[in-house]
Specification:
heterotrimer; A alpha/beta; B alpha/beta; C alpha/beta; A: Aspartate Aminotransferase, domain 1; Aspartate Aminotransferase, domain 2; 3 domains; seven-stranded mixed beta sheet; B: alpha/beta; 2 domains
């Protein structure tokens, strides 16, 4: 036999030959090969796979992997102004402490009897996010904002029996691609224009495009391009007037200072939990959430798990379980797509719960305020550079803003390259996804940026565009 | 002091942590704070004011968020206690969550995940600054190609079901390109494949046709033959299926589908027992998916974040989600040149830390180690199988006398008939000994099911402890069946009364909703 | 306080022990052969499962061994609504008892017996009351019976403890005992009773939405209706699985009979074989049928109107089989059966058939 196994491997206790022999004897086999007697010979591999040799020790593995990862320039090494769906915030130490607990880290699908803590923590997560969005129902996290938004659209389609969804033209292209794939072939998306000057959704265009075929109007607030959409209430009214739903995607780090969409008519809220205690992880920190009112018609459309608080057989004890597990309404059928649920992002939900517990009302207010101040300061300073417009839109922004470089005669690509040389990650180049904005870049300024950081950026950009 | 007798391998003295921890809101004390937030520099305040007064009145939040106010150590303690009330794989002999492949997640990989070069990189950084990350993804792709025989992988899907959805999207795109998307509207799967193999394609608008097993537990080939046609878009199947039975005729199935112009999609959620033994390619599949959080050891995290890596043959590469990660001989780069791409499955490039940890795991084992994983997983499984089948009250339908691969779906029908104690009762009682045991097994064709999947992680002693515990409990069922009614006794909570869970008036999905429904009236 | 009706058919099960295949009409013979009552002990086993809510329930029952004795032995609070004691109970008593219990507005009716008893209960209460059968008879074909007396008690307990209770309809079957004794199986679909069920057991926590039986039946109906063609006749076989089709179309239907529709309108209800043959004579026609629960008979049980002649006219390719997954699961792997009385024709029907189990969802199943 040309295939070799790896004996006495620390991850495989029974790779000890003597133990194997004892166990084989117990089951009446002569060797390990016989274990796969059921697999037809012609589809069995005849030699070991062609993979790099295993490291001989944990130390060597660690050395090698650390070497690979240290090739990356992290946002600790460089000054980062990238956002666009993945944002650099401060992650309180307790968040990492809790999500590194082996008990949480390695749990999975147990019952409330052995995974009681997991159930309570996720119930608490739901409850904490519920306060943030001021709604009574929140789900166990989905994959990311895009998945949450796509699911919200599908829920709306099922509830209304309609197959069109309106989205703003200012939507994130990446997110939109995920939504389109997830909703195809059932749902058609129609884009609504925004006002060139303010970025605000063009309400006339909305009124023109909305009809009795519209399942929902999806907007984002703050928008992908960073500005605050002031017409949430009007948009919800327009949707409701044709019996469509109002769906709002939101950055939860804004909700300490911004009105939650539920208070301006949103029926379903969705968004990403990443800003609430997750490191950027090269985009691996995303996790989506959804929230609705506590009405049966909404709850029955959630494809995700919803943990509820329950009695137990003992007085004075809370238990937890799945709410309405048997969740299939007639609506599912009409639309033709019943959704699936599976492993999503529970650990990030737990972490977001820890984050909100730490922040409290004051923390969330202060977070919003610091972000508003820092980003306004950055816009103001950038505005002072010749040829640069700090913010493309004449609207108040939260955290992100489209910096207009059109008058500099330089492309964003050039500028970002030069910034990189200075140890700065400039904002996301918008010229591909938003050609109508010309040479603009989406900058993200949060509570982690100091005045010095912003000043450093401003002088670097000034240097680059004036050179 | 007398030495404790360990000859009985059952932990009769076990009790899980029970802290009686209040709901987080109940810990709130006005004025307490868990963390201080960075404030804007005074000069910034001087320059732009308080920042928030620029927000229009309609958009300025009127009331502070009703979050609890708790100091840091109390927040920490609360969550540490709740973690102790959770039975992760780190603290129990993880065999009872059959089909979930819960194995050891090496700690070194976790530590690597905390490095700034992993945790603190932004997905939109210039390629030149994430060469290490891209190299890891690219190298993992190469390893997956070798393990499966496929030609290209995407790591965007972030879970098994999402991976199956991606495969269904690929099937659609393929037939669309061939102008056959309307004609081919049927997906064939089997009863014992994972339910997502039906649910995800259904989401993509497909009609689903299920094949039942024959008397040996193999998908019934004759039944299969009767439905494969020019309407067949694809065949989605797990092998081994969740019964642990490996379909030895799998090639005949894939050949027949190909002959009729359909595609074959391999759900490799149960691949653990096959690493280095047999591959998707040789069995005739056009695409497959692996769960990195199962077979490739990354932790389950209470249900994600995770990754369902999707691999395809050369022919289907052009339909993959963009970007793919490529290497031009000098540098790694994001390749958006995927002409017929299905678009995106997830934001950015998937759950990067999971890919990194899976890669580290592969590198710690090499080809010989992966082969050892498969062999020992199957050895462990068949050892348990042998030991449990010796018990009168345990049976396992199908392929009598032959080996199972990654898991076995047993039936406790006899135990239930003899004693009235059901698999659900056993589940609750197992918790009194610190063991998982999961009995919610779709599609419920096997009565009183018990699905055990040891993987390569437990030692022989661990397996024996699990088996001895089951035996101990089965004996109890015969001797004191009444005992099961109120089990568990040593858990963090007692039997949950689920009567309110289906009642809109009474369910409470959040604490605020609980307060409204139960205390304000 | 919850109220439970209790009816024990004391002679149920006596025939089996002495090889009589049922007790209907032969109780004296059974006694002479040394049979003794099975049902009382079985009823007690079931009642024991209710001990934990003993103080919160009242048992409404009939005299002596029809329930009073059993309930007393377990120490329950009892209301006896008939006290005739000077004679042995009979079939009429079972029916009468069930009717009286229905009038008492109980939450649930527990009864111990066999298929004959289920038939009597059905005649008395129909679908107006949730029931749980304690298996005590010789013939147990009806799914109304739990798998064991203890299970019956547990199911009742679950139902009574829950504030929101789910029920499903199950077939009441019976076979002609005279024929059965002569070796001829002649099962009839008698009607439907409502029994509680535990949806939790049907849930796959990893897999998301799994339909309850009622939802599945509506999904099947929607699928069937979506595929209906103009000017084609549709024969709608009997049963609760086909009923939602008629309901969704807003048509009058015969639950236990055969209906004929065309262009979403009723052509005729409750047709005999002769009428069917006449109506479909030379027209394009499709046949929608569902197997008998627990047994799997597609033809020859409960739908004898759809004779081999009718099926031949319709054509094998025009048979649409529908069944919920739950129903398929309850066959525990047994194949579909056909027994039209025309053996040669039965053989020609063998092979694989697609069964619609949901909206755009089918399984492939074997006919033997």
């Amino acid at each position: 036999m040309a295939i070799q196994g790896f004996k006495n491997h620390p991850y495989i206790p029974n790779s000890v030959v003597e133990v194997q022999e004892e166990m084989l004897k117990e089951i009446g086999l002569n060797n390990l090969e016989e274990l796969h007697a059921e697999i037809p010979e012609e589809i069995k591999l005849k030699e070991n796979m062609n993979l790099p040799k295993a490291f001989k020790s944990e130390y060597e593995l660690r050395r090698y992997m650390e070497g690979l990862l240290s090739k990356n320039k992290s946002c600790k090494d460089y000054l980062n102004f990238l956002g666009a769906g993945c944002w650099q915030h401060y992650v309180p130490a307790v968040c990492d402490e809790i999500n590194s607990r082996g008990e949480f880290l390695t749990a999975y699908g147990g019952e409330p009897y052995n995974d009681f803590g997991r159930f309570q923590t996720l119930f608490e997560y739901q409850s904490l996010v519920a306060e943030l969005v001021d709604m009574d129902v929140v789900n166990v996290p989905t994959m990311d904002w895009a998945q949450a938004a796509a699911t919200a659209v599908r829920m709306a389609a099922r509830m209304t029996g309609r197959k069109e969804a309106l989205v703003p033209k200012s939507i994130d292209t990446e997110r939109y691609l995920v939504m389109k794939n997830y909703c195809s072939p059932d749902i058609k998306f129609i884009e609504v224009n925004y006002d060139e000057k303010t970025g605000q959704l063009n309400l006339n265009d909305l009124k023109e495009k909305i009809s009795d075929k519209t399942a929902c109007v999806y907007i984002e607030n703050p928008s992908f391009l960073g500005f605050i959409e002031d017409h949430g209430r009007e948009i919800a009214h327009i949707a409701h007037a044709v019996d469509a739903l109002s769906v709002v995607g939101v950055d939860p780090s804004s909700l300490g200072v911004l009105t939650p969409p539920s208070q301006y008519g949103a029926d379903i809220i969705c968004g990403d939990l990443q800003p609430l205690g997750m490191h950027m992880n090269y985009g691996g920190g995303q996790a989506g959430f959804m929230a609705t009112r506590d009405e049966e018609k909404f709850v029955m459309e959630f494809p995700s798990r919803l943990f509820g608080i329950a009695k137990t057989s003992v007085e004075g004890e809370y238990g937890f379980s799945d709410v309405a597990y048997d969740r299939t309404s007639f609506g599912h059928l009409r639309e033709g797509g019943k959704e699936y649920v599976g492993t999503q992002s529970a650990l990030w939900g737990i972490t977001a719960g820890v984050y909100l517990s730490l922040m409290g009302p004051t923390g969330m207010w202060e977070l919003g305020q610091t972000i508003m101040q820092n980003s306004q300061y950055a816009i103001k300073r950038l505005d002072q550079i010749k040829g640069v417009k700090g913010s493309k839109f004449d609207t108040v922004n939260f955290k992100e803003f489209a910096v207009d470089f059109n008058e500099t005669g330089k492309t964003v690509e050039e500028i970002n390259k030069k910034l990189l040389d200075k140890g700065i990650f400039g904002g996301k180049d918008l010229s591909k996804d938003f050609p109508q904005l010309g040479e603009s870049a989406l900058y993200c300024v949060t509570e982690i940026h100091t005045k010095d950081d912003i000043d450093r950026l401003v002088s670097a950009i000034a240097e680059v565009v004036e050179s | 002091m007398k030495r404790i007798d360990r000859s009985l391998k059952v932990r009769t003295g076990f009790h899980q942590a029970k802290w009686d921890e209040p709901i987080i809101f109940e810990l709130s004390k006005k004025g307490e704070r868990g963390v201080l937030v960075p404030q804007a520099d005074d000069e910034i305040t001087k320059e732009v004011g308080d920042g928030v007064s620029k927000i229009s009145s309609s958009m300025l939040r009127k009331e502070a968020v009703n979050l609890p106010e708790i100091s840091q150590s109390r927040v920490l303690r609360h969550y540490v206690r709740l973690s102790q009330e959770t039975l992760g794989a780190d603290v129990n002999i993880e065999i009872g969550q059959g089909t979930c492949t819960v194995k050891y997640s090496p700690k070194v990989n976790e530590q690597l995940g905390k490095l700034p070069g992993m945790a603190e990189i932004h997905p939109l950084q210039d390629e030149s600054t994430v060469q290490g990350m891209l190299e890891i993804i690219y190298e993992t792709d190469l390893a997956m190609r070798e393990i499966s025989g496929m030609d290209r992988f995407s790591f965007q899907p972030s879970g098994g079901s999402q991976a199956i959805m991606a495969m269904a999207s690929l099937v659609r795109a393929y037939h669309e390109a061939n102008g056959e998307v309307d004609q081919r509207d049927e997906i064939i799967t089997t009863i014992y494949s994972h339910p997502s193999d039906a649910a995800a394609p259904a989401l993509k608008g497909y009609k689903i046709i299920y094949i039942h097993p024959d008397k040996d537990g193999y998908p019934d080939y004759e039944a299969f033959k009767s439905v494969v046609s020019e309407k067949t878009a694809a065949f989605f199947v797990a092998n081994p299926e969740d019964t642990g039975v490996y379909n030895t005729k799998v090639q005949e199935f894939t050949e027949l589908v190909h002959k009729n112009g359909g595609l074959c999609c391999y759900d490799q959620a149960n691949a653990n027992g096959l690493l280095g033994v047999t591959r998707a390619k040789e069995a005739g599949f056009d695409m497959c998916h692996f769960n990195l959080h199962k077979t490739f050891s990354t932790p389950h995290g209470c249900g994600g974040p995770a990754t369902g890596a999707v691999g395809v043959t050369k022919e289907l590469e052009k339909f993959m989600p963009a970007p793919l990660i490529d290497f031009d001989g000098e540098k790694y780069y994001l390749n958006y040149d995927v002409p017929n791409s299905i678009g995106k499955i997830r934001s950015f490039n998937g759950v990067a830390p999971v890919i990194m940890k899976a890669y580290a795991w592969i590198r710690s084992l090499g080809a010989e180690g992966l082969y050892e994983v498969a062999k020992i997983a199957v050895l462990n499984n068949n050892y348990m199988f042998k030991k449990l089948m010796e018990l009168d009250c345990v049976d396992a339908p199908y392929i009598e006398g032959k080996q199972r691969i990654e898991q076995v779906r047993y039936t406790l029908e006899k135990l239930a008939k003899d004693t009235g104690v059901t698999t659900g009762d056993i589940q609750r009682r197992m918790m009194d000994f610190g063991m998982h045991y999961w009995c919610s097994h779709h599609p419920y064709y096997i009565p009183e099911p018990m699905t055990l999947e040891p993987t390569e992680t437990p030692s022989k002693e661990d397996l024996d402890e699990y088996i001895e515990t089951l035996k101990y409990i089965f004996n109890e069922a015969y001797e004191t069946p009444d005992k099961f009614e109120n089990a568990p006794f040593a858990s963090s909570c007692h039997q949950v009364d689920e009567s309110n869970m289906d009642d809109p008036e009474k369910w409470a999905i959040t604490w605020r909703s609980y307060l409204k429904k139960y205390t304000e009236k | 306080m919850k109220r439970i009706g209790l009816i024990v058919n004391p002679i149920a099960g006596m025939g089996g022990r002495v090889g009589l295949k049922g007790t209907d009409g032969v109780v004296d013979k059974a006694r002479a052969l040394g049979a003794f009552p099975q049902a009382p002990n079985r009823a007690i086993s079931a009642l024991k499962a209710l001990m934990e809510i003993k103080d919160h329930i009242e048992i409404v029952t009939y005299f002596g061994e029809m329930g009073e004795n059993e309930a007393k032995e377990c120490g329950f609070k009892i209301k006896v609504i008939s006290t005739i004691k000077d004679r042995e109970s009979n079939q009429q008593d079972t029916i009468e008892a069930a009717k009286r219990i229905l009038e008492e507005k109980v939450d649930l009716l527990l009864f111990a017996g066999g298929d004959g008893t289920a038939r009597d209960i059905y005649n008395a209460v129909g679908e107006n009351l949730a029931v749980v059968g304690i298996p005590a008879g010789v013939k147990i074909h009806s799914a109304v019976y739990a798998s064991s007396p203890k299970k019956a008690g547990e199911l009742a307990l679950l139902y009574l403890k829950r504030n929101v209770s789910k029920v499903k309809e199950v077939e009441v079957m019976d076979i002609d005992e005279d024929a059965f004794r002569k070796g001829i199986v002649n099962t009839r679909l008698y009607g439907y009773l409502k029994i509680p069920y535990d949806p939790k057991f049907l849930q796959g926590k990893k897999s998301g939405s799994i339909m309850n039986d009622e939802g599945a039946q509506r999904a099947i109906a929607l699928d069937v209706i979506n595929h209906m063609k103009e000017d084609v006749l549709y024969i709608i076989g009997p049963g609760s699985t086909t009923r939602p089709i008629m309901q969704a179309l807003g048509l009058r239907y015969t639950l236990l009979g055969v209906d004929l529709i065309c262009n979403r309108k009723v052509v005729k209800n409750d047709l005999t074989e002769k009428e069917l043959l006449k109506e479909i004579s030379d027209k394009v026609c499709k046949l929608i049928i569902t197997p008998i629960g627990g047994q799997g008979y597609l033809f020859g049980r409960g739908n004898q109107q759809i004779s081999s002649e009718v099926i031949k006219k319709v054509g094998k390719e025009n048979i649409i089989v529908i069944a919920s997954n739950h129903k398929i699961r309850e066959l525990s792997g047994k194949h579909f059966l056909v027994d039209t009385g025309d053996e040669e024709f039965d053989i020609s029907l063998r092979g694989y058939v697609r069964v619609t189990t949901g909206y755009r969802e089918q399984i492939v199943y074997k006919i033997d």
